[in-house]
Amino acid sequence: MGLQYNVIRPITDTILYLVKFQNSPVFSCLFNKSFTELLRRSIPIQTLLDSQIVVATIDLDEWPALDSDSSKLLKSYNGSSIQLHNQYRAIFGQTSNDPVDAMGDNFNKVIDIVPL
Q1: Which of 4, 47, 95, 105 falls 20 to 30 Å from 19 in CA-CA distance?
Q2: Which residues contact 24 (CB under 8 A, 6 or more apart)?
């Protein structure tokens, strides 16, 4: 990117362009190594965080549909998206009120995963 040259305006414009016209997790690779630098340089990233570029919605049958905890939880996942189906407990751990156990085989969940 242009972070080493301190060109904040073009970087901000590029982020806005990507969010507006290319809003897809495919472009998350552009921010994998530079995300902390964007934060350090105080580049506005709220539109990026609200987009589908860094936060992808996953809808899988193997994930629970209900959870007693209504708070939003973001977790990073560095594995293959193909293997994500059976990774609920690996990502979130097992809790005493584990929704996977409570729902048995009939559950769905929409969850946000941040690829890093």
Answers
A1: 4
A2: 52, 53
